Amino acid sequence: MSNKVHKEEKKKVDLEISSAAVSDSPVSISPLGEKVDAVEGQTVTLSCRYDGDVRNLYWYRQYPGSRPEFLLMKVPGSAAVVPADPPFPRLDVNNSNNVVNLEISSAAVSDSVLYY
Predict the structure, then answer these.
(1) What is residue 85's DSSP assignment?
(2) What does each C-alpha distance from 77 to 16, 19, 86, 88 come to in angstroms?
(3) If you average pLDDT over residues 3-28, what whole number do you get?
(4) Which end of the chain has fewer CB atoms within 10 angstroms, the N or the C?
(5) pLDDT average, residue stretch 92-97
(6) Environment class of 83 (CB within 10 Å of its CB; exposed 0-12, middle 13-18, buried 19+)
(7) CA–CA dist 35, 95 (Å, integer)
(8) DSSP assigned state of 52
C-alpha cells in the first residue's frame, strides 16, 4: 500500500480596481493600487480613498462585455451596509480615515474582474 499525496494547484486570481471621477464635483475617489494578485482561497482587500462630503459609497464589479453589477453600499461613519439583492456572501466592507475597503473572502477565479 502506498501513500500518494495529491497536491491541489491553486489558480491565480487577478482583481483590478478603477477610480470614478465626476467632473465639477467636490468629491474625489481613487484606488489605492490598481491591481491585486492573489491565489484562490485567499482573502483579498481592495481599497479606495475618498475626499469630500461623501454620503454613500458604492461598490460594483464588471465582467468584460457586461454591464456593471451592484455589490453593496456603505454609509461612511456608520455600520450601515446595504447589500445587493441577492447578496454576495463572501463580501465585507469597512471604512475609516477616508478609506473604504472591500474584502473578498475565499477568492475564486470568477472574482477576476474590474471593481469600482
Answers:
(1) S
(2) 26, 21, 25, 22
(3) 60
(4) N
(5) 90
(6) middle
(7) 20
(8) S
